[in-house]
Specification:
The chain is an all-beta fold and 113 residues long. The protein has one domain. It has strands at 10-14, 28-33, 41-47, 50-54, 63-69, 72-79, 91-100, 103-108. It has a 4-stranded antiparallel beta sheet with strand order 1-2-3-4, with no helix packed on it. Strands 5-6-7-8 form a 4-stranded antiparallel beta sheet, with no helix packed on it. The mean pLDDT is 88. It comes from Nocardia stercoris.
């Protein structure tokens, strides 16, 4: 995972999977960021206590994550279009991440690099 200048990675939020949900087929997640305004963040995926990787190779700001089901997590990405102020990005895309075994498959529109 690439570290950007601005500070060390810090945990921002994550899934709150209850132990009663079990581990089989459960896609857990957490976000980490470097802090600051419009901080880029990574989404990290886990299953059964095993780290699976990040949602994207590069971190992205303006990202919101939500659970859809035990094995599906959705990310809503936003990014500034030409002429947008940094406070108000108008570009957007939704990506659905589905756990199949120990592999996460993505479907949707990612932010441009």
């Amino acid at each position: 995972m690439q570290r950007l200048s601005g500070g060390p990675w810090q945990v921002d939020e994550g899934s709150t999977d209850p132990i009663s949900a079990g581990c089989d087929g459960l896609l857990s997640w957490m976000t980490v960021e470097t802090g600051g305004i419009h901080a880029p963040m990574h989404i990290l995926f886990f299953t059964g206590g095993t780290y699976l990787g990040t949602a994207t190779s590069q971190p992205h700001a303006y990202t919101q994550v939500s659970r859809q089901s035990a094995n599906v997590v959705q990310a809503q990405y936003h990014w500034p279009l030409d002429g947008d102020a940094l406070c108000c990005p108008q570009g957007s895309g939704t990506v659905t991440f589905t756990l199949t075994g120990t592999t996460v498959q993505a479907n949707g529109q990612f932010p441009p690099n």
